[in-house]
């Protein structure tokens, strides 16, 4: 039986925030996720963009699900992500977490929007189904990006979900990315930078520990003096 893997492309000694990157998948599929699959590779530049934007204050984790499919009521990647969140919270207790998910990964992120450890979500062309319910908590910030030429997931459904979450009280921004498809390649730089900037902006708004911040500043000054 394949197992999920939690990887850390950007590690930070004392991060002020963590971003967990969630790749896409399929409606059904019990084959293992491989690192060379397109859904996984597509998220690598997003992870790098967040690491750069975080400037040494945001750690970035990537989750590779155990299997490629959502698989109906099993919601396979959702269980994997819940376990990853427990691992992250144990490693960095009290540190705010952001989620960055594409397609099926966006669906996972929206299903976890009521988890109070999660302060910000970017959902990229999220896969939203009719039974999916809006979730939120008072400190949640959500950005939904959907390409105008997307034929894989429904922009109408993702916008409806964003509107429903906003009505509940979440801070929601919905953006239509003109002239781009589900693959997010035509305006790749925009997708990467907008996602990273949004997450860093909302995760680092409030310092969670003043002493920690001082340590980070000293560490930065030491690196620059070398």
From TrEMBL:
All residue ranges annotated as the Serine aminopeptidase S33 domain in the record: 78-134
InterPro entries tied to this protein: AB_hydrolase_fold, Hydrolase_4
Protein name according to UniProt: Serine aminopeptidase S33 domain-containing protein
Species assigned in the record: Pedococcus aerophilus
């Amino acid at each position: 039986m394949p197992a999920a893997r939690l990887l850390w492309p950007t590690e930070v000694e004392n991060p002020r925030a963590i971003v967990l990157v969630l790749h896409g998948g399929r409606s059904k599929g019990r084959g293992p996720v491989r690192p060379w699959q397109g859904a996984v590779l597509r998220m690598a530049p997003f992870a790098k963009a967040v690491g750069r934007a975080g400037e040494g204050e945001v750690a970035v984790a990537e989750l590779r699900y155990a299997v490629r499919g959502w698989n109906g009521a099993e919601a396979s990647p959702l269980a994997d992500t819940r376990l990853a969140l427990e691992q992250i919270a144990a490693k960095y207790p009290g540190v705010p977490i952001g989620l960055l998910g594409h397609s099926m990964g966006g669906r996972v992120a929206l299903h976890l929007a009521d988890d109070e450890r999660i302060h910000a979500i970017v959902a990229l062309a999220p896969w939203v189904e009719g039974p999916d319910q809006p979730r939120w908590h008072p400190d949640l910030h959500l950005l939904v990006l959907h390409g105008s030429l997307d034929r894989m997931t429904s922009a109408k459904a993702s916008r409806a979900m964003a509107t429903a979450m906003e009505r509940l009280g979440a801070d929601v921004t919905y953006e239509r990315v003109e002239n781009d498809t589900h693959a997010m390649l035509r305006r790749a730089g925009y997708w990467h930078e907008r996602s990273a900037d949004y997450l860093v902006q909302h995760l680092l708004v409030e310092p969670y520990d003043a002493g920690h911040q001082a340590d980070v500043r000293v560490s930065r000054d030491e690196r620059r003096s070398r």
